[in-house]
Amino acid sequence: MTENILVAGGAGFIGSHIVETLAKTALPRIVVYDVNATDKRVGNVVSFKGDVFDSDRLLNVMRKEEVSKVISMVGLASISDCRKNPNRSFSLNVSSVHSVLEAMRIVDAEHLVFPSTAAVYGDVVEPEVDEGVEPRPTNIYGWHKLAAESLIRGYAEDYGISTTVLRVFNVYGDFLMEQGVISAFVRMAFEGKPLVINGGGQLRDFVHLNDVVDAFIKSLGNVAAYHKVINVGSGVGLSINKVAKMVCESFPRTEVVHKSSQNGEYGIFADVSEMRNLLGCKAMDPRVGVPRFIEKCKLTEKRKLLMASA
Length: 310
Ligand SMILES: NC(=O)c1ccc[n+]([C@@H]2O[C@H](COP(=O)([O-])OP(=O)(O)OC[C@H]3O[C@@H](n4cnc5c(N)ncnc54)[C@H](O)[C@@H]3O)[C@@H](O)[C@H]2O)c1
Prior knowledge:
By secondary structure, the protein is an alpha/beta fold. 43% of the residues lie in helices and 21% in strands. The strands form 5 sheets. An 8-stranded mixed sheet has the order 3-4-2-1-5-6-8-13, with helices on both faces. The model has no long low-confidence stretch (mean pLDDT 94). It has one domain: Rossmann fold, CATH 3.40.50.720. β1, α1 and β2 form a beta-alpha-beta unit. It is globular, with a radius of gyration of 20 Å. Nicotinamide-adenine-dinucleotide binds next to α1, α4, β6 and β9.
């Protein structure tokens, strides 16, 4: 069996960085399959513009490129977008996984690595969650990801596909591509707008993009991670208030406006023992990584302004 890797959704925020990092390794072929890709071959990366729901094309690509491992990054990651458009959320977060699993079953591919989310935990009792905590999602995004996890289990049990589910927490690290709270705060600060915070005491687990990429790559073909669900986080809970404070340290004239939270101020962060033990990964501490990232965002915005005025 070959070791060639398909990255479905490989042109997106996380997927493109996985591809970029894989391309630097001496691994076999990396096959990008994405509606936003263009057909091309650069070094050991071959890209196809393709829809995961076009099963003929997907199968042709997987057969032609002799794919044995798959990372499926197709999805709709924004909770508010999923809430506004549950059909699209179902299609991208659940049906797309089914299409990929079907193609894997037909071509007899070996291993799927799938990005689930901290949102499957939902209404937690204690903020620190390990993978044994019962999922109790509180939004359609979390429920759809949980449904995808069930589909994956079904294909593993009935068709012997090896699978690894990574429950990814709050990713930061690419200002131009991401939509998370840190980048949103930096954009507001840059525009001289106040940071409006609902609640603020909520703990979140901010994990750097490089560490997320590392977890995906170390999962690929890793027998210890087969049929496992693994949290991918930093293991540190940082409050939204603390993030706002970090932004204000970089942009001292920024005001913070507090509003009461309608959803309570529950917090969540990852127990990362499995990530460390099974994948050998340790993420950067966000108390170090987030301020560095804010400074980097500032430089990116300044460069953009300079280029616009040139
Ligand atoms: N971004 C995060 O913070 C985060 C956190 C946890 C989990 N995740 C999950 O990770 C995955 C990737 O997230 P992201 O932020 O990189 O998303 P993204 O939207 O940047 O990437 C998704 C990619 O899928 C492609 N795509 C969409 N529909 C397609 C289709 N029908 N066929 C082929 N390609 C298609 C898009 O063109 C895009 O390049 C998602 O499943 C998301 O739920 C993301």
